[in-house]
Input
Amino acid sequence: MTETTELIDAYAAGAQLLRDVLKATSQVDIDARPVEGQWSIREVVCHLADSEIVYADRMKRVIAEDNPTFFDLAPNIHVPALTGPHRTLAAELNLIEALRNHLVPILKSCSVDTFQHVGVHSTDGPMTLQTLLQRITRHIPHHVAFIEEKLQILS
Output
């Protein structure tokens, strides 16, 4: 198994990782902010869903286009503006799962060379498809730790 295959498998498993941790949210207030200065569980999940949309676009553009440009995502601006009580954890999780299920076969069909295709991030500069995939693959586990911390406090 190659490093890229393992990375794609980890990417594919991310939605289930999030689904598993969110099972414990039925008994807590998902809008509570038990850690001062941090987002609520709902805000974290909405941020994850919003990021999936952005990264899906970035990865598809890097695969298909020659040196595309993409802009920075400003989570501290987007989360308060886009998160609300009508965004359910189930819908956000379904979106994340659907996007990853959509992208996995595309990524699996890419050649080794395609993973070295480059796009240009407005603040971080050139990024390969491999780098974009690494970043989004780490994103859910990174935030799952924060969700688990909130769940411990709220339980």
Summary: Residues 3-154 form a domain with the Four Helix Bundle (Hemerythrin (Met), subunit A) fold (CATH 1.20.120.450). Helices lie at 3-22, 41-64, 75-82, 89-108, 129-154. Residues 129-154 form the longest helix (26 residues).
